[in-house]
Amino acid sequence: MFLKQFDLFPKVQIDFVTRNSVGGAVTLIAATFITFLVVTQFFEYLTPQYIPEISVDTAHRTSKIPIHFDISIHNVNCDFLTIDVIDHFSDKIGGAAQAVTRTPIPSPLAQEKAAAASLSPLPKDYCGSCYGAQTVVGQCCNSCEDVKKAYMAKRWAFLHTSSMEQCVREGAVVEVRKVTNMGCRVKGQVDVSRVRGSFHIAPGQSYESSAGHVHDLGLVGIKDLNVTHDIHSLVVGEPQANRKMGLDAPLDNTRRVDGAAGLCQRYFLQIVPTDMVSGAAPTETYQYSVTESGSPADGRRSMPGVFFSYDFSPMRVTVRKERESFLRYVTIVCGIVGGVISVSSALTAFFTGGVRLIQKQRLGKAL
Predict the structure, then answer these.
(1) Domain around 177
(2) What integer pLDDT is reported at residue 172 of this predicted model?
């Protein structure tokens, strides 16, 4: 035939081929090894490769980013909690909290309710103590509100009402118990702009003043508030997309205990936009790192509560999902099969030659 002259694989007649147990053992081992490598390579071929790329985020975006949260504050009533969002360019953002649900939960530190003390007539010469907050000699603080105003004039924190005789007499302690008799689980989302900002869940009614954003605690002292809390989940972006990407949320299942009462717990989130590109339109997700600090509230620069400060990174991570081509898979399989067969042939020749050499030496000695 014409094609015989192109045959690079000369054949040996079957009569000149010998088979032995060594070759059979090496063949079985080689076949097993080839099967294992081919199957492993096949599963690797089916598994997509994720290739991350980092670039500067130059896109101009005006859309809002949702932050989903599920937080339990164990010792503050739902009616006494306020959720505020403040960003770098704005004051308090109204309506930023979407579909927030507040579910009362039992408070581990709840005390039994006590009846308000009856207001007994005060003597005409009564002069209540200002507890060191008086501005002039002989100043009287005859009511709990007078004590609070004296403290504010001194720029002191109104810490503990249960230790002030006027507040106890006017029933402020009962008000504290009403505020702390239950806990609250707050679940929902806040929509934020892509700029530096913060949101917080804190006791008291919030308002803006010359001193900035403050919370009015009424007659409740800072030390009367225990903000032990659990962060069940906190996700930036859409939770479903983040789960699909396999992104972790560092604050999930976090618990912080307010040991001394009046805790100001701050979390600082550095958010990195992360896109998944897989043929179709990219999926936008967000991952974040967190740093935290906790300290007793002083009533001036800090208030009791759970505060989240966030900032968006100027860098963007793009993860490209790519699958290995079928031709590359075939090439690798051919390399595996050819390589194992070549090594097996060399091993067979080595062991067979060794066996023959030993047999010749034995025959020589026998002769």
Answers:
(1) 58-116+171-240+252-263
(2) 66
